[in-house]
Each structure stands twice: as structure tokens, then as C-alpha cells.
Amino acid sequence: MAEKSAIERDVVRALRQVYDPEIPVNIYDLGLIYAIDIDEDFKASITMTMTAPNCPMADQLVEMVNDAVIDVPGITGCSINLVFEPEWTKDRMSEEAMLELGLL
Fold first, then answer.
1. Helix, coil or strand: residue 45
2. Whole-model pTM above 0.85?
3. Strands (E) located in 1-104
4. For the chain, does the N or the C end have fewer beta carbons within 10 angstroms?
């Protein structure tokens, strides 16, 4: 169990290195990641959204997330579930993200 929680922390660190190409904030603090699940085989399942359903960078961003997660030591696979319910709102953003964007 300790190993799994350490890997989950590493996945979060990796996701904080992925930036929306249109917004200067990482996707984790932006609130685009809804869930991170690591199964018993250490395969990651990421549930995420976009700031808008018609985001022109969606495919690229999903690929960037997959690449970041699959590079985490201990992760054996990754699947991305892109959802639009619940809809993303700025309320999902961390304080750091809101400060970065001048919203606080």
C-alpha cells in the first residue's frame, strides 16, 4: 500500500509538469484532473477534462498526460478517460493557479 501511494504522488508530480498549451498553469492545479486510480497491476487510469469541450488542443493534451504518466517509475500502463461531466469551472483551480492567472 505504501508503494502505491508513493507512485500516486509521483503521478501527481508528473501531471504537474504538463501544461495546457493555451494557459500558463499545469493541468493538475488547473483542475483538469478529476481522478487518478492505480490498480493492483500498477496501471494508471486518469479521468480528466478540458477547460472547454471544443478545446483545439485536446488530443495533444491527452497525449502529453499519457506520456507523463507512463514515464513514472512503477507505472505499467495508462488509460485516459476524457469526460465533460461535470463541466470544468474555475472553482476546480488551486490557489496557486488562481494566483498565477491573476484571479485572486
1. strand
2. yes
3. 33-38, 43-48, 77-82
4. N
Alpha-carbon span 101 to 54, nearest angstrom: 21
Model pLDDT for residues 19-47, shown as the tens digit of each residue: 988 888 999 999 999 999 999 999 999 99
Give the position of cell 479521468.
Answer: 47
Percent of the chain as helix, strand, coil, to the nearest 5: 40, 20, 40
Residue with cell 492545479: 29
Return d(Cα 66, Cα 29) in angstroms, integer: 17
The CA radius of gyration of the chain, in Å to the nearest whole number, is: 14
> Looking up cell 481522478, which residue turns up?
35
